[in-house]
Amino acid sequence: MIDVDGSKSIDKEETLKFWSKNFPKLNSNELFESVDKDNNGSIEESEWVEFWANVYKSGHTKDEIIVEVIII
Asked: Coil, strand, or helix at residue 43?
């Protein structure tokens, strides 16, 4: 789970901790570049939902998405 404080938003500190040794800076930067549409340094729940809706529209199945979202 990335949103460890339950704020319904994700900040870079949380993503860096989540990925720890698995390319945390690269993963965090790419995540925010793709999802943080208002560039405020926080991914709000609405941005997160919109991102996954776009993933679904691009052809991925609900089951594929659920696996990814549950891991986070």
From this structure: strand
How many whole angstroms separate alpha carbon 12 and alpha carbon 29?
A: 8
The whole-angstrom separation of Cα 70 and Cα 5 is 16
CA–CA separation, 61 vs 72, rounded Å?
A: 17
Q: Per the structure block, which two tokens stand in for 32?
A: 């925010």
Residue 61 has pLDDT above 90, yes or no: yes
Q: Which of 2, 70, 1, 72 is nearest to 42 (CA)?
A: 2
Given a cut of 90, is residue 56 above it in pLDDT? yes
pLDDT at residue 71, rounded to an integer: 54
| Predicted TM-score (pTM) above 0.70 | no
Residue 20: CB partners within 8 Å, gap ≥ 6?
none
